[in-house]
Specification:
Mean pLDDT: 93
Organism: Roseateles puraquae
Oligomer: single chain
Number of domains: 3
GO biological process, one term: NAD+ biosynthetic process
Pfam families: CN_hydrolase, NAD_synthase
CATH superfamily of the largest domain: Carbon-nitrogen hydrolase
Strand content: 15-25%
Distance between the termini: 62 Å
Shape: elongated
CATH architecture of the largest domain: 4-Layer Sandwich
CATH topology of the largest domain: Nitrilase/N-carbamoyl-D-aminoacid amidohydrolase
CATH class of the largest domain: Alpha Beta
Family: In the C-terminal section; belongs to the NAD synthetase family. Belongs to the NAD synthetase family.
Number of helices: 17
Strand order of the largest sheet: 5-4-3-2-1-14-15
Low-confidence stretches: 96-100
Structural class: alpha/beta
Pathway: Cofactor biosynthesis; NAD(+) biosynthesis; NAD(+) from deamido-NAD(+) (L-Gln route): step 1/1
């Protein structure tokens, strides 16, 4: 019987394209693991280059640089005897993009290599390539199966470890092949983006895989934000019977230590936070990493006195700190007094810089300039949108001058129905709550207030939502009640139900027709919206690719 195997799961936050920096992170984790007496260190999928590298994988120089850094990591391990490190990285396939410049076949393989004693001991190529939701791997990767590469099992201190990469573990064949090759432990490296319910889904599927193979399983997962995607960590291990053996914390870097002894895994189990806490942490992580990894010095937010901008301000402060966040209130002729009061109150509660810039003089100037063109025509959304666009112009001017990024405040319900203004409230660099439905906005506000001091004034939460672009305006003048709207949105956009199916579920036909029509006709707006954090299994972004010009109406 092999002696106990000490394993570490390196839950790290890497940066796409920062090959040298990512290699340094892996080497630092290896040194810490070696000090802790670890035999096997496991890093996430494509940890060397970051995930997803997208079209960087089409550049021969990028793939060559990955190989150079992989060799550097291997060389560093010569000073750490006995330690085996699993590193995720891309590798140019034979006859790849650098040799044939052919678009008929993907240029590279998604690899997991085992490094030890200064050498690359073995390399495994991912077999199952996801091509759904945010995944587009068949554009870039050639399957290890199609390349004629089989299972890889390596001996680590007398234990035979079978390698798998992410999607491989969701299917029977790759794990069965590793088992047939003599694996006694399944080692899965992953980069699996967060969405609500994903943690539970992952653990359930890996429990099935462990039971099917009759083998214990360890799962090393990425953490951090990358553009619209957030990776939540929560690396874990399950016993051969599928029971949970260990779990790392969510949304933070960790070196999770566990031991395999006589076929049983032992480690610490971090709790899974409640849903609202997970979403909040995802939003905070997404903002912190988008600004931090792209070098923005701070954030600008147009604070209206409404719940959406209040929520975005609270997330930004939690992510960046008060010194890097600035709120600007830009009242119009229709701004209610309570909006001023509530905006000032919230800014004071969070101790952020707060400024007021009236848009009345500019609005009057626009109206005067357009008076001849609009003579005899009634006021409508045109004048409303002018106000929003003035605000967008002011925020972008401040952004240009001082370098801070504008965080937009539109939620998923508004993005779905087009209840937003191009070059107005849609103007900015990062859409924090783009994938958060309005009903969830209210839940998150109440959850955050329950975590200590009430930072979002109660009246902001309880006031009827309004864009305040005309006298006594309310959102529900133009839209169905948000619980109805969000339920229809979830069924139509996230679950792909037809109009007939939604009506059959009990919704009023007029509400269903109205909401689905708005979703369709506002695709052109969403194409011009900033990238935003994805927290559902289908957001308006990488996993929503609908034509702008389309006559399909079911």
């Amino acid at each position: 019987m092999p002696s106990p195997l000490k394993i570490a799961l390196a839950q790290i936050n890497v940066v796409v394209g920062d090959l040298g920096g990512n290699a340094d992170r892996i080497i630092a984790q290896a040194r810490a693991a070696h000090v802790a007496g670890v035999d096997l260190l496991v890093t996430p999928e494509l940890a060397l280059c970051g995930y997803p590298p997208e079209d960087l994988l089409l550049r021969p120089a990028f793939l060559a640089a990955c190989e150079e850094q992989l060799a550097r990591i291997a060389a560093a391990l010569a000073a750490l005897p006995g330690l085996h490190v699993v590193v995720g990285h891309p590798r140019e396939r034979a006859g790849g993009v650098a040799r044939e410049r052919s678009w008929s076949l993907p240029p590279c393989l998604n690899m997991a290599s085992v490094l030890a004693d200064g050498q690359v001991k073995a390399s495994y190529a991912k077999r199952e390539l996801p091509n759904y939701q945010v995944f587009d791997e068949r554009r870039y990767f050639y399957s290890g199966r199609d390349a004629g590469l089989g299972a890889v099992v390596v001996d680590v201190k007398g234990t035979r470890v079978g390698l798998l990469i992410c999607e491989d573990a969701w299917f029977d064949e790759p794990a069965a092949a590793a088992q047939a090759a003599g694996a006694e432990l399944l080692c899965v490296i992953n980069a699996s983006p967060f969405h609500i319910g994903k943690v539970e889904e992952r653990e359930a599927r890996m429990a099935e895989r462990a039971r099917a193979a009759g083998l214990p399983l360890v799962y090393a997962h990425l953490v951090g934000g990358q553009d619209e995607m957030v990776f939540d960590g929560a690396s874990f291990a399950v016993q051969a019977d599928g029971s949970l053996a260990a779990r790392a914390p969510m949304f933070e870097e960790a070196l999770a230590l566990l031991t395999l002894d006589a076929g049983r895994l032992q480690g610490e189990i971090a709790p899974v936070p409640e849903m609202e806490a997970q979403v909040w942490q995802a939003l905070v992580c997404g903002v912190r990493d988008y600004l931090g990894k792209n070098g923005f010095p701070g954030a600008l937010i147009g604070l209206s006195g409404g719940i959406d901008s209040a929520l975005v301000l609270a997330v930004a402060v939690d992510a960046l700190g008060v010194d890097k966040v600035r709120a600007v209130m830009m009242p119009s002729p229709y701004t209610a007094d309570i909006s001023w009061i509530d905006a000032r109150d919230m800014a004071e509660r969070l101790s952020v810089r707060y400024d007021e810039m009236s848009i009345v003089p500019m609005f009057d100037a626009f109206n005067a300039t357009l008076a001849g063109e609009f003579k005899g025509l009634p006021l409508d959304a045109t004048e409303e949108n002018i106000q929003a666009r003035i605000r967008g112009t002011l925020l972008m001017a401040l952004s240009n001058k001082f370098g801070s990024i504008v965080l937009t405040t539109g939620n998923k319900s508004e993005m779905a129905t087009g209840y937003c203004t191009l070059y107005g409230d849609m103007a900015g660099g990062f859409a924090v709550i783009k994938d958060v439905a309005k009903t969830l906005v209210f839940r998150l506000a109440r959850w955050r207030n329950a975590q200590g001091a009430e930072i979002i004034p109660e009246r902001i939460i309880t006031r009827p939502p309004s864009a305040e672009l005309r006298p006594d305006q309310k959102d529900e003048d133009s839209l169905p009640p948000y619980p109805v709207l969000d339920a229809i949105l979830a069924r139509y956009m996230e679950q792909d139900e037809s109009i007939a199916e939604i009506i059959a579920a009990g919704f009023k036909p007029e509400d269903v027709e109205r909401v689905t029509r708005l979703i369709k006709i506002n695709e052109y707006k969403r194409r011009q919206a900033p990238v935003g954090i994805r927290i559902t299994h289908r957001g308006f972004g990488r996993d929503w690719r609908y034509p702008i010009t389309s006559k399909f109406r079911a």
